[in-house]
Amino acid sequence: MVNPEANADLPQSQAESDSQEAAAEALARKEDQDADEGTPLVEIKSPGDKIAEADETGQSTSKKPTPDAEFSCLTKEDLEHFAKDPFWHRLRLIFFILFWAVWATMLAAVVVIIVVSPRCPPRPPRQFWQKPIYRLSVKAFAPASDADPTALGSVEGLTKKMDYLLNTLGFNNFILDSLVTREPTSGCIADFKAYNSSLVSLESLKSLTKLGRKKGFSFLMEFDASQASSAWGSGAFLTTVEPQAPLASRDGGPAWRDSQLHLPRSRCLSLNVTDAQVAEKIEAALSFWLDAGLSGFVLTNVAFMAPRRAPPADAPPGLNGKTWSDADPTALLFSNDSVKFVRQIRQFINAQAEKRGRELALFVEPGNTGFPQPPDRLAAYLDKKNGAHAVISTALGASLSSASAKWTSPSKVVLDTLGAAGSNDSVLFATAWSHLRRPKESHLTALSLLLPGVPCLYYGQELGMAHVAGVSLLGEGLSSYLSGNESTDASETPMQWSGSAANAGWLSNTSASLAWVDLSPRAADIELHNLRLLSSTGHPKAQSQLELVKSVLTLIGGSESLQWGGIEFLATRDDSLVAFKREAERFPPVLVIMNTGDKAATLGLAKQAKVTTGTLKVLYNAGGGSTSYVKDQEYSLDVVFVPAKSILAFLGKD
Questions:
Q1: Nearest residue to 143 via CA among 433, 517, 435, 523
Q2: For residue 304, what are the CA distances in angstroms to 29, 281, 337?
């Protein structure tokens, strides 16, 4: 307690000082208490409030909130002030102009890129039948059992070899020879729905085609509607007044007998395919085979369908009074009625494809006419919508009656045929077929795959199976209707599955012989030729025709130029050299060089092919000469060294 009497004795200034200290202490205690209670010392009622403080003179002064004060929002008045401020007005205008300038620049850049940039390379629509195709004879391909020497090849045996065809070779499309049964003696067809039970059961065929739809492979079947047996009735056949000088049929028998035409087999009758009822029965048979799962047909012997009854007035001199093979029979064959029939069948195929919801194909094959196929008549069967999808040309191969195939440049045949067809994808250039000699030249095998159109291969061609004329089929109804050198038995010899000279690997007992074919004439070929061409025997891969086929098929699968590109034959100074370029628009070209001679050669390609370098993708060197080439290496094409009996394919730079 403070003594007032004591304080009275103190000076007045001292008393005022003590009083101020006491007030300050009281105020400090008050602040501590407020701090403990969490209350602010000063309450700011609004962001715009001013704080009153006493200056040294004791007068009140106003100050703005300190930076530590709570954030204050802009009022309407503040916003209006800034909106009218010249600095902010200019800044907003600058950003506005900058935004639209950038936007317009980007739009212009997009337009320029679209206009200046090259378009994507054109890719024509592709159908399943345009991929490489493998033609085989069911009876000669593979047996269902390797213990029965009497067993023919069958669809069941083919099923067991699908891994070889699909994975070893790389084919997904296959042409089967006809599975329709023929009368044993005459070789004529009585019912186009009747299948040869020694080759196929309906269940085995449906099972295989069903597997194909799952795995992505397809089957076409050859179908010969040119002739039938007399069981069809007389109204189904071509009849006319017999010409004064009757021609011979293809097998040498009379073409006309009892005012009826027998062509090409003299024992069978020529169907009148222009008759509506005949066409209806044929379409019913085709529908039956489509029900079994086939993906289309190859109409064979179309050149013999509905031929002219007699030589026209403008027939070549000497046609009358000659056997048909001694004179040019073009005036009789490849008739317009046969073209109309093919177009009618194409309409049927189109309707069936729409009905069944899957792609179907129709090919045509003129047949064994015995004379060169006229390109214009082949092309008459083609039409993207109304005719055949593709036609099979055998002009590059050698006929069965030829002593041997003489190598000639393919340029004229290829360019004439493609020119007549008017398309690069509607021709199969077959160099081996049932009525052609099996070629010795690997170059012909490569051409079948590398030329424009549908790449194709005849069974055994990948192994270099040679033509041996002495081979004959012994079973009833198996041998060719043509005799002598024109017999097709040699070209339909059993597929080579091993080095067994007795049975070609068809039987587990390698010394046992097949009962239905005499393979003894082929013994030397089996042991010395075909085995050498199998890479598994230890020979260099560059000498293996099997490796050649595999490498070419691999190149086709990865090259758009080989799939749908055009062809340009390149000039060479040596007749033994063949060079051409395949190129699709804006895709890397492929350059192919073949040397069929016994001597190495050089060839400059860069200037005329307009390709300076290329990567080597195919290397086949049957000549055995040394070479420094390595596959998948890049080489200059200014001067190309071409070894003897070799095939080179370079993938050029686009």
A1: 517
A2: 128, 19, 10
Average confidence (pLDDT) over 64-84:
68
Instruction: Classify 568 as helix, strand or coil.
Output: strand
pLDDT in tens, 615-629: 999 999 887 666 789
Q: How far is CA 329 from CA 10, 241, 321, 340, in A?
A: 157, 19, 12, 20
DSSP state of 529: I
The strand ranges marked E within 435-547 are 456-458, 472-473, 517-518
DSSP 151-195: PPB-HHHHHHTHHIIIIII---EEEEPP-B---TTT---S-TT-B
Query: Which position has the token pair 């070929």?
Result: 525
Query: In angstroms, rounded to a whole number, what is the distance separating the alpha carbons of residues 181 and 61?
Result: 123
Residues 486 and 472 sit within 8 Å (Cβ to Cβ): no
- pLDDT score for 382: 93
Q: Locate tokens 């628009």: which residue?
A: 585
The model carries a pTM of: 0.81
DSSP track, 461-482: GGGTPPP-TT-EE-STTTS-SS
Q: What are residue 568's DSSP bridge partners?
A: 581
Task: Enumerate residues 6+ apart whose C-beta is below 8 A from 12.
Answer: none
Contacts of 37 (CB under 8 A, 6+ apart): none
- Domain assignment present for 529: no
Measure Cα distances from 223 to 129, 353, 436, 471 in Å. Answer: 17, 18, 19, 25
Contact in structure between 565 and 587 (CB atoms under 8 Å): yes
Residue 628: inside a domain? yes
3-class DSSP state of 231: helix
Give 23-35 pLDDT, tens digit per residue.
666 665 655 555 4
Contacts of 196 (CB under 8 A, 6+ apart): 179, 180, 181, 182
Number of domains, the chain: 1
**Three-state SS at 447:** helix
CB 521 within 8 A of CB 180: no
Bridge partner list, 222: 298
C-alpha angle 635-639-642 in degrees, rounded to nearest 5: 85
User: From the CB of residue 484, how many other CB atoms can be counted at a distance below 10 Å?
Assistant: 10
CATH number of the domain that residue 568 is part of: 2.60.40.1180
Query: What is the Cα 184 distance to its own chain's centre?
Result: 39
Residues in the chain: 654
Q: What b/e readout covers 461-480, taking b as 16+ CB neighbours within 10 angstroms? A: bbbbbbbbbebbbeeeebbb
For 314-327, the pLDDT digits (tens) are 544 444 444 444 54
Cis peptide upstream of residue 149 (ω within 30 degrees of 0): no
Encoding tokens for residue 277?
A: 């009822």
Q: What span, in angstroms and rounded, lies between the C-alpha atoms of 445 and 432?
A: 8
The contacts of residue 597 (CB under 8 Å, 6+ apart) are 574, 576, 577, 644, 645
In a domain, 591, yes or no: yes
8 A C-beta contact, residue 379 and residue 420:
yes
Q: Is 615 inside any structural domain?
A: yes
Residue-range definition of the domain harbouring residue 638: 563-652
